[in-house]
Amino acid sequence: MENLIDLKEFTKNRTLISEIFKKDINEVEIAGWVYDSRALGKIKFIVLKDLTGQIQVTAFKNDVSEEVFELMDKVSRESILYIKGKIVQSKQAPGGKELVPSEIKVFAKAEELPIDVTDFSKTELPKRLDYRFLDLHRKKVQAVFKIESTIMQGYREFMIKEIGANEFVFPSIIGSSSEGGTEMFPLKYFEKNAYLSQSCQLYKQMVACSMEKAFTIFTVWRAEKHSTVKHLNEARQMDFEMAFADEFVVMDVLARAIKYIIKKVLEERKTELEELEIKDLVVPEVKYLTFEEVKNILAKHNVQPEPYDLNTESEKKLGELFPNTLLMVHDWPYLGRGFYIMPKSGEGDKRVTRGFDCIYRGMEITSGGQRVHIPEILEKQLKEKGLNPENFKSYIDSFRFGAPPHGGFGLGLERLTMLILNIANIREVTLFPRDKERLTP
Fold this sequence. Notes:
Elements: H1 7-13, H2 17-22, E1 27-40, E2 43-50, E3 53-60, H3 66-71, E4 80-89, E5 97-108, H4 125-130, H5 132-135, H6 139-163, E6 166-167, E7 173-174, E8 186-189, E9 192-196, H7 201-211, E10 213-221, E11 234-243, H8 247-268, H9 270-275, E12 285-290, H10 291-300, H11 312-321, E13 325-330, E14 343-345, E15 352-353, E16 355-360, E17 363-370, H12 375-384, H13 393-397, E18 406-412, H14 413-420
Parallel strand pairs: 3-5, 6-10, 12-13
Antiparallel strand pairs: 1-2, 1-4, 2-3, 4-5, 7-9, 8-9, 10-11, 11-18, 13-16, 14-15, 16-17, 17-18
């Protein structure tokens, strides 16, 4: 099928709808989706939208060609149109301007919509996700993912400009567990058994031990069969690793990164925040507490965490007690941490590590800490965690040839987004979510 218009010429001549209301423009060529249409006898209306805004297209029967007038009320919602015409002032039109069309071409006709894509949609989330490609037509949904895009941009900017880190790409297919204990998705890699990666943890450590500062945005897969509003089986992490750093150096970088990101969102996404009615977002403060101190605080409020971890109730209470705060909970118990976290002090059940969690708005958004860079300690802790050091030989060997002390974190992209935007379900901030029930679209 040939193009209805010369797209190369149109790209040069196209006017975005938002520009119509900012500039004094007479003749325009626009393209977009039909948001609404009405016919009132000798006058017909279309509301056309593009990524930047909406405009009313108005046609009086005697002022436009018969072809244009006939087409005006025959196009279905979300059909894609090219419209050429004249901009006129109008007190009745939204924004004070409207478009009188001289030419209309239908790029694509939309069939009957299976979901409501208006800004007032009442369609339930599961069905919206079934038709996510249509759900993305809604302004509120677009606002979420524009903000999530800015979060990723802010993370990259901060790491490059403020930290001087380099961005790396790590493998997603691995031969053994990255962390131990977490269920994995197995696959056949030619004649070998392999897995989808739970984490780029081990790889970013190897890079940091030679190039000092490494960051990435990495997709992780976790095979737990959970059905919660805060977990996915495929998620994105904003990972960082740094040489010559203990957990406090890492926590400082993390806090500064999140502050930078939220400040950028507040400055650059005002329109989207208004669309989502977000009014309480502020750059957070930072507070440091040990795991034992947190347990004592929670006990005063009759909340009991897990012996070596913070449960959902504990995190929620901490969010209430420390609003708009990045709560860095450090000196984490050894029995609640991975084999790769550096021990700090104590023995047995009292053993403490250089690991930490960051709690923000009542939810854990990242774990991190100083890593083990001494092969003998790694081998000992792998055995203590019930793992075979032979399965981690290449990882352990990477520290035998001059590895500095180092540490890092993995910050959940979707989880940070949902908390910044006060959205209850992580699937709302995931373009195409993957959980135990959903593999399409």
